[in-house]
Amino acid sequence: MAPPMTTKRLNLSVQYACNATGVPLRPQIRAWTRAALNVDGMRGGQITIRFVDIEEGQALNREYRDKDYATNVLSFPYETEPVVLGDLVICAPVVAREAVEQGKTLEAHYAHLIVHGMLHLQGYDHETGDDDAQRMEDKERAILASLGFDDPYQDRKE
After folding, report:
1. Using one digit for the tens of pLDDT, what is the confidence trace for 8-66?
2. What is the dihedral of CA 77, 78, 84, 89, to 10 degrees?
3. Max alpha carbon distance in the chain (Å)?
4. What whole-number distance in Å separates Cα of residue 18 and Cα of residue 46?
5. Do residues 99 and 109 lie in contact, with contact meaning Cβ atoms separated by under 8 Å?
6. Most buried residue, 8, 57, 98, 120, by most Cβ within 10 Å?
7. Inter-residue contact 1 to 36 (CB < 8 Å)
8. pLDDT per residue over 78-123, tens digit each?
9. Would you give the end-to-end CA distance of the chain in angstroms?
10. Which strands sit side by side in the sheet containing 45-52, from one edge to the other?
11. CA 56, CA 91: separation in Å to the nearest integer?
């Protein structure tokens, strides 16, 4: 029997279920995930991140959110204490398209979406009001800056 996971350990599973180019490698994903877990103090987690194609992304979004299109990231939180347990599903073709449309590097956009999804797994939600959205965006900006990335919202039109 395996010993119980400590509160600071990260157990990360990365699944590449698509043939997209430019998908980040496990060391990058681990660094981004760890930074997001540490946003409110050192935390541990058991996280699966799965990169998918349009078909799987659309099927999951349709099944779990009643939206019949592929979206960039889906978050499936299971627990937040004592460690964060959850899954992220990232649709690689959507991320690649958005990066071009937004004039961002593919790496920066993946980093943003992993941080964004990790915050959702920890209970942050930008769809519950302006204050919550601002709090989440501020956390994203701080985490991404600590990783050397620009503000992902800097060019957004208000």
Report:
1. 899 999 999 999 999 999 999 999 999 999 887 778 899 999 999 999 999 999 999 99
2. -40
3. 53
4. 22
5. yes
6. 57
7. no
8. 998 889 999 999 999 999 999 999 999 999 999 999 999 999 999 8
9. 53
10. 10-16, 45-52, 84-91, 73-79
11. 8
Tokens of 92: 């690689």
Please report, as a single letter, which amino acid is at residue 45.
G
Higher pLDDT, 2 or 53: 53
140, exposed or middle or buried, with CB in 10 Å at 0-12, 13-18, 19+? buried
What's the token pair of residue 49?
A: 């991140």
What pTM did the predictor assign?
0.90
**Residue 142 to residue 39: CA distance in whole angstroms:** 9
